Amino acid sequence: MEGAQAVREALDGDVTVHEVFVTATAADRNPDLLDRAAARGVRIGPVTDEAAAALSETVTPQGLVAVCDLVDVPLADVVDGATFVAVCAGISDPGNVGTVVRVADAAGCGGVVLAGDTVDPHNGKAVRASTGSLFHLPVTRDRDVPGVLDACRDAGLATLVADGRGETGLYDGGLADVLAGPVAWVFGSEAHGAGREVLDAADHRVRVPVLGRAESLNLATAAAVCLYATVAARTPVTCG
Q1: pLDDT at position 186, please?
Q2: Which ranges of 174-215 would DSSP assign to H, the alpha helix?
């Protein structure tokens, strides 16, 4: 991972950080971060600006790169005992995957499942888009999408797939009771949605209403709306 924020989150999390590469300029800007690395026994390697640029995947490198263990865990570690998870099914854009992880973290999800041909969460762009949330909640990968839905159901989670043509509206009255219980939200690919197999297997197919003239919502935006609708269904209403 690269950048001060991502490296700081990794150092503060449970992931093993093996080495931090840093330029002289970045070292001057982030002395506290290097102190954290040293306190954890992480090896610190000074590098030139040219070497940092070669390690970086961004146009304007920050001069700070860390090498860490992979963060994914077994599927059971995410779904067993969970009450709220997000499932990415066949999402190909790493920026969307990282943003869904970030939103899931913000909304209080117990974990994120990357199912089917979803992009690797360790992709550099996905890591950057998660802004550190990749280290805050458990993430798992599993190629068997039907198996993932079965595992969610076996764990007592109702499966809801976001679909623009779903028969249930996100704000339909009856859905609030479902959202108040254990749920797994499923978000499909940017171009084709979740696919027939997932739509047929899910307990509920839910549409986010589009009231204006927009053709659709961005995947990550739709995920944020759905996940926070779940938060709202679980939040007691208080009168002032």
Answers
A1: 97
A2: 175-179, 196-201
